[in-house]
Model the fold of this input.
Amino acid sequence: MALKVAIVGLPNVGKSTLFNALTQTAAAQAANYPFCTIEPNVGEVAVPEPRLDELARVAGSKEIIPARITFVDIAGLVRGAAQGEGLGNQFLANIRDCDAVAFVARCFVDTDITHVEGRIDPIDDLDIIETELMIADLESLEKRVTGLEKRAKGGDKDSQDALRLINMALIPLRAGRPARVVEVAEDDKRAWRMLQLLTSKPALYVCNVDEGAAGEGNEYSALVEARAKADGANSVVISAQIESEIAMLDPAERAEFLETLGLHEPGLNRLIREAYSLLGLRTYFTAGPKEARAWTIPVGATGPQAAGVIHTDFEKGFIRAETIAFEDYVHLNGEAGARDAGKLRSEGKEYIVKDGDVMNFRFNV
Done:
């Protein structure tokens, strides 16, 4: 599954520094002026998964292949982006291509790094960004209404359905609320996604703090966390500057550095996991002497759908899935032990795959 998360925020809030840390490269130019990132930087990162190491140990796997997620570093938006200010139209189009949005809020004070608004106020920063996205959505939808109304009056069913969904989205947008607050019926979700609304995308708030607040956050991040809770979203406290330094260390030095900061793991791990969860994703595994691998599926995926992630032939010719819970696989020392203990299950086409299932598919093409 090709999954993209847009890193979005005002200029100079730490987006490119965060992106560099995520990808462990200096691919994004981090500079102290707006619009230093003109073209979106794209980086693919592994989803942290300690269970893979355990599976590889038990199965004697030669290679470990984690699930992956793509982050897109979007250039800084400013007031008026929806009207094209600061190359806003181009940047908004880049967000539209992503599956979710990570809003980066500046929660640190540094007089050496200018703020485009001349002050530190993460809530106002978020309001600016959200407003620009809502304006863009409003303008996009309102342009479509007239043509759809004409075709809908003529009895065109597709136009009637599209118009109904657009009107559902316009209600909160005209009231100053994002489209993600709309409850969409399961049957309408595909058509809803086709509207390509910026504010319907799942959102994660990233509180970029200074080094001293990396562990517990500060008064600014507390405000953002409260905002996220009120919006029904999650938030992550992270110091992009520290993370960029951690990313350049070897594993031994990294562990020692984290300990001095009172952290158990890099903040990036939490960010990546939150982004993965935000998209409503789950992981199942395959394991053997050649490789231990994590596969990405949506919540609620059936056995055949999970098999199809590996190859479409697996889904078409699905017979059954030999399934072992992760804990049973590890504690019983692999497939043979799980089979002997009666913990290997044969699941059919209606089985809903659980997070952590270790699976082997039987199929016939």
Summary: DSSP finds 14 helices and twelve strands in the chain.
